[in-house]
């Protein structure tokens, strides 16, 4: 059985992503690990002249966090029942420390295949788009990370778009994406923005077509319109995309892609989940 890790702060964006993760786990026959982390407050060793109170403050803080955790996990169980997804195996984890450090440890110990996180995309700043925790996880782990915007609703995965440079290092990520596509019986559209005519791209598309001869791969070559990010945003604007797939090496493109939706007054599809994969031979096992 595949395993999905879902870090949550119990916000509205996270709760929405929880429902998305439940649906995905159901479709992928996966179990869902829900983790909530907390950081202990930093106190002076003397704590206002009463150092003996420091352990008690820490203990009370942890107790308060745990009571909050129990309340919210009960709410998540109710949500699973409301969406008729109570049969998805759930494991709840309450851990001290940063999201990234705990995610790294759980990935190794439990054999996690995918991380799903809820995000807000309100501002044209990368930390606001993904949230600092989500961005930190994207940078810090070696498994695919699915970023689910607050406005997203799970309606199945019928259209997958993979932004690619048609390089050999993208092939491992493509294999992972094709596993998803085969599960949902959909095509993968490989999109590339042409700055100029390139014979090498034609050779790569031919090789990829031979690698996946089941006729479930489509190539979308877009003529450059001002910038790469604007060209991609315009395509996403005019076509249904349920899952946008990018390779992590393109952090600068990833940032520009979402920031440009503000600067160019383009409305990035607010309901588009984004799957971020590793570059190279080990994009993470999905």
From TrEMBL:
One Pfam family of this protein, by short name?
A: Usp
Q: Which InterPro entries does the entry mention? A: Universal_stress_UspA, UspA
Q: Where are the transmembrane segments?
A: none
Q: Where is the UspA domain?
A: 1-149
What CDD domains does its record include? USP-like
**In terms of domain of life, where is this protein from?**
Bacteria
User: What family is it from?
Assistant: Belongs to the universal stress protein A family.
In Swiss-Prot or TrEMBL terms, this protein is called Universal stress protein
The species is Sphingobacterium gobiense
